[in-house]
Amino acid sequence: MTAISYQLYGSRNWPLADTLTMLAEAGYADVEGYGALFAQVPTLAEDLRAAGLSMPTLHYGLDDLERDPQAAIAIGRAVGAEAIFAPMLQAPDRPVDLAGWEAFAARLVAAGRPVQEAGFVFGWHNHDFELADLGGGVMPLDLIAGASPELKLELDLGWTARAGHNPVAMVERFTGQIHAAHIKDVAPAGACADEDGWADVGHGTLSWAPVHAALQKAGVDRYVIEHDNPSDHRRCARRSLATVQAF
């Protein structure tokens, strides 16, 4: 059975307590956390329990993880997480060539060891820059996935489409290493400009039936609904959940 989460980053512009209540009322049981939230809300674990929500996966900044892996482990245990994903590299920190990305992949493997030894799944969450061609059809995400079979992926399908790739092909390419998928939709060209060009799931340009079939074939049983900048997070949460439940 596929479990459905909601990435709380999409609701960062609303009070957390209201967001958790809204999500529980909308029918969510699980949410996914992001780095800044853990510093801002020291009572997060208690707030989740009060709302009847769980946090099986979370995002945690790579620099912070390397600086103090035990802090990440403590947060993961406090919220009952099973997986921790490093989520992002800012533009100045991104490698520019094959050798740089190979070194970065090795860095991820090393950073993940304490987390994995503590019993968590550890991996990387992609945007579009990891899907650029480094030459010969090799992408940074290939190097990340190829660094270790224990280094898992949270494949963001919205960013995959934004990068010009077929999401089905990407799911097939990384079958065996995808622990979770971000279910995110891309608005038609020129639409939803006030929402950074993203759409509620099922109200954009992605064809979800073949994507869902590919994810199921790949054994991915954790879907995380995300919209990076909804103007109305209640609308987005409810419409997106209805779409995914209808898969």
Description of the molecule:
It comes from Phaeobacter piscinae. Keywords: Plasmid. This is Xylose isomerase-like TIM barrel. InterPro entries: IolE/XylAMocC-like, Xyl_isomerase-like_sf, Xyl_isomerase-like_TIM-brl. The chain is an alpha/beta fold and about 250 residues long. The protein has a single domain, classed as Divalent-metal-dependent TIM barrel enzymes (TIM Barrel). The chain contains 11 helices and 10 strands. The strands form 2 sheets. Strands 1-2-3-4-5-6-7-10 form an 8-stranded parallel beta barrel, surrounded by 4 helices. The longest helix is centred in the middle third of the chain and has 20 residues, at about 100-115. The termini are close together.
Can you lay out the helices and strands and say which pair or pack?
Blueprint: E1 3-7, H1 16-26, E2 30-33, H2 35-40, H3 44-51, E3 54-59, H4 62-67, H5 69-79, E4 83-86, H6 98-117, E5 121-125, H7 140-147, E6 151-156, H8 157-162, H9 167-173, E7 178-183, E8 185-186, E9 198-199, H10 208-217, E10 222-225, H11 233-245
Parallel strand pairs: 1-2, 1-10, 2-3, 3-4, 4-5, 5-6, 6-7, 7-10
Antiparallel strand pairs: 8-9
Helix pairs in contact: 1-11, 6-7, 9-10
User: What is the arithmetic mean of pLDDT?
Assistant: 97
From the N-terminal CA to the C-terminal CA, the straight-line distance is 12 Å
Helix segment tally: 11
Overall number of structural domains: 1
Q: Helix proportion of residues, in percent?
A: 40-55%
Structural class: alpha/beta
CATH architecture assignment name = Alpha-Beta Barrel
Overall 3D form = globular
**Major sheet details:** 8 strands, parallel, barrel
- Total strand count, please? 10
* Rg value: 17 Å
Order of helices and strands: EHEHHEHHEHEHEHHEEEHEH
- List segments where confidence is low: pLDDT < 50 over at least 5 consecutive residues: none
CATH homologous superfamily grouping: Divalent-metal-dependent TIM barrel enzymes
Q: Which strand-content bin applies to the residues?
A: 15-25%
CATH class: Alpha Beta
CATH topology: TIM Barrel
Q: How would you write the strand order of the largest sheet?
A: 1-2-3-4-5-6-7-10
